[in-house]
Write a structure and sequence with these properties.
about 280 residues, alpha/beta, eight-stranded mixed β-barrel, about 20% strand, globular, binds ligand C2E, binds calcium ion, GGDEF domain-containing protein
Length: about 280
């Protein structure tokens, strides 16, 4: 209270949060203008032989004063401010450029995935944007995968769904990200333009400790298989989770157990060492 018996919603802590929010928007603008972002790459591997199916590109921001700022913090701010459109442009270009270079170096069976936010889908002519970027970077459409969250996909307009379908006809694959958190009915899967289901880490974490979650995981995996979708389990951190996921017949895993996201330099030198292609 302010001493006169009036309660205010405002607190010093809230003031700090709001200040940081506005500060980060301004800093994001500067960082975009000076191209101060990098991408990290995390492999998604087949459970049978650990061969790499694709890399997920993940945005990184190392702020000159604040140090590394998590995408879990700056991506939502970039979305709120529409800065994600310009930033996402750079991300898609850079991810495609990198994979095109790796293809030319011989790693030509591996694909690249890029996270696309709902704001980008809403404001961009998605088909033209993606096909233009592929043409500019020389990456074949069959080497690109777009990750779109379940909640974005179920709210997408007909025009967006149509654009995604046209991209699929060119060979681009669509993954439904954070699956299980968007509360869509499973039957919605039948109408969405998707090739891959990425089951959210939450289910992987719960499944080894709670048998009910194991059953949910099992039924997602069964349904996905019946619909001819590839199933990926994200956030696999320990061997027991890997074993469970493998026994359920899930095709691919991503997680710290296999590899953390790494710089292009590290990925490139490992691939050359192991001659993965
Ligand atoms: P996401 O799309 O679900 O990406 C997976 C996140 O899980 C990444 O966090 C990755 O580092 C983390 N992860 C992978 N394996 C494990 C594991 O075994 N354990 C744990 N604890 N975490 C694991 P990151 O890189 O911090 O990204 C967080 C989120 O920020 C992403 O979640 C995505 O929603 C967003 N994001 C990141 N990069 C981009 C981007 O380029 N564009 C857009 N639109 N969003 C992005
Ligand atoms: Ca993702
Ligand atoms: Ca995800
Ligand atoms: Ca997630």
């Amino acid at each position: 209270t302010d001493g006169r018996g009036i309660f205010r919603v405002y607190s010093p802590e809230m003031g700090n949060k709001i200040r940081r929010y506005h500060y980060l928007i301004e800093e994001l603008r500067l960082a975009i203008a000076s191209q101060s972002f990098t991408l990290s790459f995390q492999p998604i591997v087949n459970v049978d032989d650990f061969s790499i199916d694709y890399f997920e590109s993940l945005a990184r921001w190392n702020h000159p004063v604040e140090g590394p700022i998590s995408p879990a913090e700056f991506i939502p701010i970039a979305e709120d401010s529409n800065l994600i459109i310009e930033l996402g442009n750079w991300i898609l270009f850079e991810a495609c450029r990198q994979m095109s270079a790796w293809h030319n170096a011989g790693m030509n069976k591996v694909k690249m995935s890029v996270n696309i936010s709902g704001i980008q889908l809403k404001h961009l002519p998605v088909y033209e944007w993606v096909t233009d970027t592929l043409a500019k970077t020389g990456l074949p459409p069959t080497a690109l995968l777009l990750e779109i969250t379940e909640s974005c996909l179920i709210h997408a307009s007909e025009k967006i769904i149509d654009d995604l379908e046209r991209l699929r006809q060119q060979g681009v694959q669509i993954a439904i990200d954070d699956f299980g958190t968007g509360f869509s009915s499973l039957s919605a899967l039948g109408n969405l333009p998707v090739d891959i289901i990425k089951i959210d880490k939450l289910f992987i974490d719960q499944a080894t400790i709670n048998p009910k979650y194991e059953k949910i995981l099992n039924s997602i995996s069964d349904l996905g298989k019946q619909l001819d979708l590839k199933i990926v389990a994200e956030g696999v951190e320990v061997a027991s989770q890997f074993e469970l996921v493998k026994n359920l017949g899930i095709h691919c895993v991503q997680g710290f157990l296999i590899s953390r996201p790494e710089s292009s330099y590290n990925v490139g030198s490992k691939v050359i060492r192991n001659n993965l292609n």
